[in-house]
Amino acid sequence: MTEIDKLKYALQQFASLSAEDFELSAAYWKHKTYKKGEFYNVHRNICKDLGFVTSGTFRSYTVNEETGEEKNVFLYSSHGFLVTFKSFINQIPCDYHTQALTDATIVYINIIDLLSLYRQSHQWETFGRLLAQEAFNVTMTRLEGFLFKSPEQRYLDLIHDHPDIFNNVPLYHISSYLGIQGPSLSRIRKRLSRK
């Protein structure tokens, strides 16, 4: 399956976009490859592209200016959309760095082209609404996870949402994303392996 085929299938599943709807967008999508450590977007830059990850994993993170400590905020895996949504929809500077945690490939579309599709097609407008809902749900799930769930429950959610994460990403990035220290993550993994 080619990268464009993966994208087409994902858009059909996500927003019921037909082959004709997709054809409207075909000329707008571009391909990009990232080496581990390369940036998709950096803090204070405006996110101008919506990406779709065809392989690899990315993270969005903040840096404490006083201590230099990094905190992972969002993870993006294969077959998911890659965007710092607030920056993208408002075209304002981004609050995060977004970086490839592994070698990765994406296909992406510029916001100007996406807005043009919204004007041309009701189905593409529906896609935009569903994308906004998804971004809201991801953000609220992260927030509520820290408010209402134990670290173990957050760990199980992570495995559900990113099943290959432990094969590809160092444990210290996973600990940061879960909001716990490395030894706590080791204890959770050991406890769950006994069940």
UniProtKB/TrEMBL annotation:
Species in which this protein is naturally found: Runella salmonicolor
Superkingdom classification of source: Bacteria
Protein name: Crp/Fnr family transcriptional regulator
UniProt-listed InterPro entries: cNMP-bd_dom, cNMP-bd_dom_sf, RmlC-like_jellyroll
